[in-house]
Amino acid sequence: MNQLFPRAGGISKAVIPAAGLGTRFLPATKATPKEMLPVVDKPAIQYVVEEAVAAGLSDVLMITGRSKRALEDHFDRNYELEEALTRKGDEARLSRVQESSDLATMHYVRQGDPRGLGHAVLCAAPHVGDQPFAVLLGDDLIDPRDPLLARMVEIQEREGGSVVALMEVEPSQIHLYGCAAVEATADGDVVRVTDLVEKPEPSEAPSNYAVIGRYVLDPAVFDILRETEPGRGGEIQLTDALQKLASDEKLGGPVHGVVFKGRRYDTGDRGDYLRAIVRLACEREDLGPDFRTWLRRYVNEEM
Ligand code: G1P
């Protein structure tokens, strides 16, 4: 299993786990995948695929489950709709409809049993093969103006091993995340990860560095995941497999963290989801001016 590293570049595959039930958004997610909930006028998942493509990863594998057909439809052609828009001469909407199907080469695999994030990532093994690959979690939106994934790919190509995205959070919030113990490196935005704990109590957290949902992983993680016992919540945790990688470099190279200081929106939480929509709508060139005027008046007069 030992790898020679740093390995030559060429990371091209992104894996997006999307099999979760979305219970926090019921009843909206009773018959609609949570990944399809709109953020302004695009489903959340499209931002994530766009982010992968912007970082040069145009081969996207989605790990889906039952009732996730809408995801496949969204990234496929819709000839009926395209024809109707063509007949109307509505070029602008036509190109918006075609955008999602032209974006990336999409692949899908079903998880079957929802046995945790680690298990979802393991479902990608046959597709990924023996090259490093990225994992993007759909609940985290990273603002395209603050690119993170491209920097992570750069660090993975330079250092080998695996790279996680980290963000400093309030200590009271660390129990919501994987948490990393870190050492500084010569690069201000890069740390060496020496330990990881999934969702620790604040008193047991080794730091306030939270793992946010972006990873560039050495394929050695698959062998480790195959042997990883269910952890927190009875689920096979990706964090536990990464902890093993971090504790023994011989297994698959070092684990580094890229510390992100940009804009991130957690669309898995209802409050943050609303904040993301308001913020992104305000910043849109087409909708922003009117919406900001209305919002200012609403806040001043009605709140
Ligand atoms: C997952 C991971 C966790 C990570 C988080 C980032 O947790 O297990 O380590 O910090 O994503 O969003 P989830 O939020 O799916 O419970």
Automatic annotation (TrEMBL):
EC number(s) given by UniProt: 2.7.7.9
Family that this chain belongs to: Belongs to the UDPGP type 2 family.
Alphabetical list of Pfam families matching this protein: NTP_transferase
Stored CDD domains: UGPase_prokaryotic (cd02541)
Single GO BP term: UDP-alpha-D-glucose metabolic process
InterPro entries to which the protein is assigned, alphabetical: GalU_uridylyltTrfase_bac/arc, NTP_transferase_dom, Nucleotide-diphossugar_trans
Keywords: Nucleotidyltransferase, Transferase
Top-rank EC class of the record's enzyme: transferase
Chain ranges of the Nucleotidyl transferase domain: 13-278
Protein name listed in UniProt: UTP--glucose-1-phosphate uridylyltransferase
Transmembrane segments: none
Keyword Nucleotidyltransferase: yes
Reactions listed under catalytic activity: alpha-D-glucose 1-phosphate + UTP + H(+) = UDP-alpha-D-glucose + diphosphate
Gene Ontology MF term list: UTP:glucose-1-phosphate uridylyltransferase activity
SUPFAM superfamilies xrefs: Nucleotide-diphospho-sugar transferases
Organism name: Streptomyces termitum
